[in-house]
Amino acid sequence: MESCCRTAATGERQEVLRCPQCGRRGRSVDIVTLKSLLTPAARATLDPQAGYAFCREPSCPAVYFADGQVYRTQDVAVPVFQKDPSPAVPVCYCFGWTRARIHDEIARMGRSTAADTISAHVRAGRCACELTNPQGSCCLANVLGVVRSAAAARTPALLSREDPR
Ligand SMILES: [Zn+2]
User: Fold this and answer.
1) pTM for this model (two decimals)
2) Structural domains in the chain?
3) Is the separation of the CB atoms in 149 and 99 below 8 Å?
4) For 16, which of 26, 54, 101, 129 is 20 to 30 Å away at the CA?
């Protein structure tokens, strides 16, 4: 669990990093995440000495920033969960849980196995969040959020189905 949910730089870099685009606080992210997920053109402009942070504000186009540098969604080779509400966007990048997969499972079974399945993979040491997930850290909080909202969205349909007329 620890190897997955830790980002290498987090311990050392706790100063407040504010996104130059939206002004919200970012979270420092290890450069290996940018190396893994930037497009080739964006990767060619990386500064390995810069301390990059991730902006999770949904309406902000910036994904990563450092002093004088911003990488936007188009500079990232995968869709960014926080910035792209489409059903096909992964919530868990390591094991392929999209919003649609979570919603479909809840629609079919009334519950989601995503968090338990992912947790088991994490415990088995299979996750690669720092390489696959643009936020560079464990996806479980996002998964639980999508499961909650999918379950809440389903409730009215369930009630109306149980309604006799
Ligand atoms: Zn921002």
Assistant:
1) 0.83
2) 2-75 (2.20.25.270), 90-162 (no CATH)
3) no
4) 129
